[in-house]
Design goal:
Layout lengths: L3 E4 L5 H12 L3 E6 L2 H10 L7 E5 L5 H15 L6 E4 L14 H26 L11 E5 L12 H20 L6 E7 L2 E2 L2 H7 L11 H15 L3 E2 H13 L6 E4 L3 H10 L2 H12 L4
Helix pairs in contact: 1-8, 3-4, 4-5, 6-7
Length: about 290
C-alpha cells in the first residue's frame, strides 16, 4: 500500500517543491491547487518518480470545496490512513497596521489561519490509524514563518497570522495526542518563490501622504530583495519530508539562511535592543 500526503497551496513555491520531494521519495501526493490548469505542471514534475502527484481543487477559503476535496481523498484512500497533511497555503500582504486596509488584513487571516484550520478539521479524521492499520497515525505539518516568532514592521498582518498559526499548532498538538496524531511547525525564513513578484506588484498607493510612505517603501524593497536571495524551496520540501518521517520529530523546525544572525541572535537579544536597532535603520529615532 502507498502512503499518501495532502499538500495545500501546491501550485507554486514551497507547496510545489514539497510535492515534488515527496513524490520522488515514493509518496502519493494530493496537491491542492486553485485551478485544473495549475495542476498540470505538478503531474509533469512527478513523471518518473516512485510516487505520483494527483492535483485536487482546494481553495482553503471555500468550505464546500474543502469538503469536496476531503471526500475525494477519503474515497481514494479506502481503509488506509492519510500519512500526512501539509498546511502550506498562505498569503502575505505588507503595510503599516495603522493604514493597511482592513479587508487586506482580513484576507491574510482568512487564508493563513481560518483556511488552515478549516482544512485541518476536514482531513484530520483520515490521519488517525485504525487498530488494524500497519502504520502509525499521520502527522500535520503547518508551515509558519520567522514571522511567527518575530514581528517585523510593515508585516504586522502576516506576522500576526503566523503567530496565530504557532498558537493553534501548539494547542492542536496537545489535543490530537488523543488520536496519536502529531503536529509539527516549520518556520522558514525567506524562500525564493513567486511571492516576491506578487509583493513587488502590490498596490501601496494608500501610503501616499502618510508618515510611513518613505520608510515602508524602503523596507518593503529591502525585504523583497532579501527574499529573492533566500533559501531554495526544495530545502523546505526536504525538511517537510523529515518532519513527516523521522521517528522523533522536533515540535518546530527553524529553517533560516544565515541562521545565527537572522534567527538565533535576534531571538536572544532583549526586545528593546532589537526595537532600537530597527528604529535606527528606518529613521524612526529623532
Amino acid at each position: 500500500m502507498s502512503k499518501s500526503v495532502v499538500v495545500t497551496g501546491a501550485s507554486t513555491g514551497i507547496g510545489f517543491a514539497t510535492s515534488q520531494v515527496l513524490a520522488k521519495a515514493g509518496y502519493d501526493v494530493f496537491a491542492g491547487v486553485r485551478s485544473a490548469a495549475a495542476g498540470e505542471p505538478l503531474v509533469a514534475a512527478a513523471a518518473g518518480s516512485p510516487g505520483k502527484i494527483t492535483p485536487i481543487l482546494l481553495e482553503v477559503t471555500d468550505g464546500a470545496q474543502v469538503a469536496a476535496a476531503a471526500a475525494q481523498v477519503k474515497a481514494a484512500l479506502g481503509d488506509a490512513p492519510l500519512f500526512g497533511l501539509v498546511n502550506n497555503a498562505g498569503v502575505g500582504m505588507g503595510g503599516p497596521l495603522l493604514y493597511q486596509p482592513i479587508d487586506e488584513i482580513r484576507q491574510v487571516f482568512e487564508v493563513n489561519v481560518i483556511g488552515l484550520l478549516r482544512v485541518t478539521q476536514a482531513f484530520a479524521p483520515m490521519l488517525a490509524a485504525t487498530p488494524a492499520s500497519p502504520w502509525r497515525s499521520g502527522r500535520v505539518v503547518n508551515i509558519s514563518s520567522v514571522g511567527g516568532k518575530f514581528g517585523a514592521p510593515f508585516l504586522g498582518a502576516y506576522s500576526g497570522s503566523k503567530h496565530a498559526v504557532e498558537g493553534l499548532s501548539e494547542s492542536l498538538r496537545r489535543e490530537l495526542m488523543l488520536f496519536g496524531i502529531d503536529v509539527i511547525i516549520i518556520g522558514p525564513g525567506a524562500v525564493v518563490t513567486q511571492i516576491w513578484d506578487k509583493a513587488e506588484a502590490a498596490d501601496t498607493r494608500y501610503l501616499e501622504g502618510t508618515p510611513y510612505a518613505a520608510s515602508a517603501s524602503q523596507f518593503i524593497a529591502y525585504f523583497i530583495k532579501s527574499g529573492r536571495q533566500g533559501l531554495k524551496a526544495e530545502k523546505l520540501g526536504r525538511v517537510v519530508l523529515e518532519a513527516l518521517t523521522t521517528d522523533k520529530p522536533k515540535t518546530r523546525y527553524a529553517v533560516v539562511k544565515n541562521k545565527l544572525f537572522a534567527w538565533t541572535i535576534p531571538q536572544l537579544l532583549p526586545k528593546r535592543t532589537v526595537d532600537r536597532t530597527i528604529a535606527k535603520q528606518l529613521g524612526f529615532l529623532k
